């Protein structure tokens, strides 16, 4: 009889300790982003002209390109995750032209030299 009481007590404690909390991942954003930054030596070069960023079929005009050490102040260009064709042009000349793969919640830095 004593063993039966112990077994029931142990089973009751195991059932009472069940974790009822579930992890929710609905708040995770499925976006990736691209930022444009420049080296200190070329900072003045990109102020004098028009910089265009082409991501697949979309074209963005970039007003200000910060230095590498001020990358946190750079404008984020939000895109979907996956493979994209990225072209950066300065006064009509291609400065950067690559196919890039960007994962979920990844920020790709493009350093203009």
Helix/strand layout:
Blueprint: H1 2-16, E1 31-38, E2 51-55, E3 58-62, E4 77-80, E5 82-90, E6 93-102, E7 107-112
Parallel strand pairs: 1-7
Antiparallel strand pairs: 1-4, 2-3, 2-5, 5-6
Structural write-up:
The chain has a single domain (28-112), classed as Immunoglobulin-like, CATH 2.60.40. Strand 2 (51-55) and strand 3 form a beta hairpin. The model has no long low-confidence stretch (mean pLDDT 83). The chain has 113 residues and is mainly beta. 13% of the residues lie in helices and 42% in strands. It has a four-stranded antiparallel β-sheet, with no helix packed on it. Strands 4-1-7 form a three-stranded mixed β-sheet, with no helix packed on it. The protein has one helix at residues 2-16; strands at residues 31-38, 51-55, 58-62, 77-80, 82-90, 93-102, 107-112.
Broad shape: elongated
Query: Could you say which structural class the secondary elements and strand pairing correspond to?
Result: mainly beta
Q: What is the architecture at the second tier of CATH?
A: Sandwich
What name is given to the CATH topology?
Answer: Immunoglobulin-like
Q: Mean of the pLDDT scores? A: 83
- Spans of at least 5 consecutive residues whose pLDDT stays below 50 are none
How are the strands ordered across the major sheet? 3-2-5-6
The first-level CATH class is given as Mainly Beta
Order of helices and strands: HEEEEEEE
Share of residues in strands: 35-45%
Total domains, how many? 1
Describe what is shown at a glance.
With 113 residues, this protein is mostly beta strands. The chain has one helix at 2-16; strands spanning 31-38, 51-55, 58-62, 77-80, 82-90, 93-102, 107-112.
């Amino acid at each position: 009889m004593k063993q039966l009481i112990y077994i029931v007590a142990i089973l009751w404690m195991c059932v009472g300790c069940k974790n009822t909390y579930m992890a929710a991942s609905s708040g995770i954003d499925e976006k990736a982003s691209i930022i444009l930054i420049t080296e200190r030596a070329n900072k003045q070069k990109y102020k004098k002209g028009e910089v265009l960023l082409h991501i697949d079929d979309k074209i963005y005009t970039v007003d200000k390109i910060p230095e590498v050490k001020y990358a946190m102040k750079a404008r984020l260009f939000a895109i979907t995750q996956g493979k994209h064709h990225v072209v950066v042009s300065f006064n009509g000349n291609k400065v950067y032209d690559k196919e890039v793969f960007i994962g979920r919640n990844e920020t790709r830095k493009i350093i203009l030299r």
